[in-house]
Amino acid sequence: MSFLSRLNLIPQLPTYPGPYDVGSFELEIPASSLLEPASKRSPPDTKVETVQFRVFYPAEKTDSANTTGWFGGTATKPIRWLPEPYQREYLSGYARFMGVSSGFAEIVSYLPRALYYISLPATANAQLLGGKLPGFRFPTMVFSHGLGGTRLAYSHICGSIASYGVIVVAPEHRDGSGPVSFVNAPARKTTHSSEGKSESGEPSINESSTKASMKDTNGRVQVDHRAYPHQVSEETENGRNRQLEIRLWELNLIYSALSKIDTGKVPKDTIMSGDEGETKEGTMGPEAKNLLSTFKGKLDVKDPGKLIWAGHSFGAATMIQFLKSIHYPPPTKPSIKPLFAPDASLPPNTFDTLPLGKQITATSPLLLLDLWCLPLLGKRTSHLFKQPLPQISNNPNLVLVIMSEQFFHWKENLRGVKRILSPNPGRKRGTLHHEIFEKWDEEDTGETGDTGDTAIHEETLKHFHPDNDLLSPSISPTVEFSSTPDQGGQIIPPTAAPSPTPERQHGHEHREAKNREPRFYYVQKSAHLSQSDFGILFPVVVRHAENPQRILDLNVRATIQWLREAGYNDRLAETEHLEELVNGLRLNCDDKDKEIKNKEGDWRIWEEGDTGVEGWERIDLEETDIPEVKA
User: Composition bias, kind Basic and acidic residues: at what positions (predicted)?
Assistant: First the structure.
């Protein structure tokens, strides 16, 4: 099929930009193998019996003589972009996610077979890069996907970051936010499952699906996409809360899994993709065990604040809720049950593992791509929404936020993002534009959070949708949307008129203020899906975006430079000068200039004006929201 790829019959992902080869595998681990005996926690949904994630990592170079096939492609088993062995089901799920009826989606899934052969430019189950000094640990990142995402939907940005020396873990959330997912039942006998609604009144992930709640002959459970209107209602709020509960639960378990792997332990009944030596009883084969053993002592999970957290859209909101849930104690008299509270036994506090509560600190790096605020505006999330990110008072530069131009022009969402990045998100702004963020139920007394103000709260939140955005002079009155915005498809903000590069001050006070803020940028002529693989695989579908590869390159290079400055510089591969990969430098500065010559890395990515990068713009916070960094 590589011959057909050369004929451009199959969409292709570009090679990764960094100097290292990239290896990849995926794991599925039963939750029962990660829960400690002391844990009394039960999963938010009993069908979520396992956690699944794909790992991208810097790998040893593979001998080209052993990897070249008949038509120039790889002779090793390729990593397909549509997850195997359920490619038809994932394609059908994507069709339904885009608004196609279920019946027609099933027909569509049989037609474009060429899409089945889209492959990643990574080597399946390659050996982890060696040759490092004793005690060396690779920077490690956990990346959460957005609506319609999977463990492979952001493969290019994850693989690109890995190609510079970072181990990137990409979960597949089984919360109904993806197009579809499959849970492989653990080898043990399955426990009872609950149908319908949970005790909180919020829906289970498969409440509306008949086939999703059934296990096939191999014990697999299908989790279908669950659509909620983007206009907020009680149904939507409960549904997103339920999804967040599952996502936070999964992240907790995944951290426990990484901690175990780092100590050289393989959780019981772990399944690895491409494990040809797996026994009939489900025991991992020797080659797979050997590969996992090379990760012992190599994951940066043992020291506080070292694990990097990242996400796109709903995934970015997930990471904010997760970090705040760990960092801030629950209210002494909570009127509303929190979505998540950390389990003190996951992982246990021993000499070779670090509890999650000690891992997440004010020094934890946080990467937010096209943050979607809506899931954080419900009654059960409002308490933490009003708390600042832990990093803001310590070192705001540890937070990098990259928006698409499409989301940058969605002003209501942008106001929410700015509040989240401020030192006091709960501060009353007192304007009509901020009313949606200030209608919290502060006088709740009931355990369920029901109050007489609920109707007012919901009526206010109904306005949080692109077609209700209060237009500003920079936004065209023409607005485009998904053909079925109320069925949970893409979030499509207003189409913005091209805006000129804003003029900025460049004095000493301006630079000092900028250094007290999170890194906050957007890429011109980019769309919401530009940070995923969809932008580069299907550019015709992702409208309002130009040069999709350059958009991804800018995101990656900014991330790598941000990580360098966050303390990982000596563990990342050298990079080319930014202008060698990303064309569009506004001015070729004199290399003899000492100030420029002495700078290291991709420093131009933070510059403005003539020395900045074309199409890469900094976003200002509100003047009153520039945090005062503690000495």
Answer: 213-222, 503-514
**Segment 436-490, tens digit of pLDDT:** 787 664 444 333 444 444 554 555 555 566 655 443 323 332 333 333 333 445 5
Sequence-separated (6 or more) residues with CB below 8 Å from residue 42: none
Does residue 323 come out as left (phi exceeding 0), alpha (psi in the -120 to 50 range) or beta? alpha
| 556 three-state secondary structure | helix
CA 97 to CA 529: how far, in whole Å? 14
Q: Residues 92, 93, 96, 98: is their CA dihedral positive or negative?
A: negative
Q: What number of other Cβ atoms are within 10 A of residue 630's Cβ?
A: 8
Between CA 510 and CA 525 the distance in angstroms is 26
pLDDT in tens, 152-167: 999 999 999 999 999 9
Domain ranges (residues) in the chain: 2-81+118-625
Among 455, 570, 491, smallest CA distance to 165 is for 570
Tokens of 288: 């797979």
Joined together, the tokens standing for residue 418 give 């700015």
Fold of 2-81+118-625: Rossmann fold (3.40.50)
Provide the sign of the torsion angle of the four alpha carbons 132, 136, 138, 139, taken in this order: negative
Q: Angle at which helices 155-162 and 548-563 pack, to 10 degrees? A: 40
pTM: 0.85
Those residues with Cβ within 8 angstroms of residue 465's Cβ, 6 or more apart along the chain or in another chain: 230, 231, 232, 485
Burial of 526 (0-12, 13-18, 19+ CB in 10 A): buried
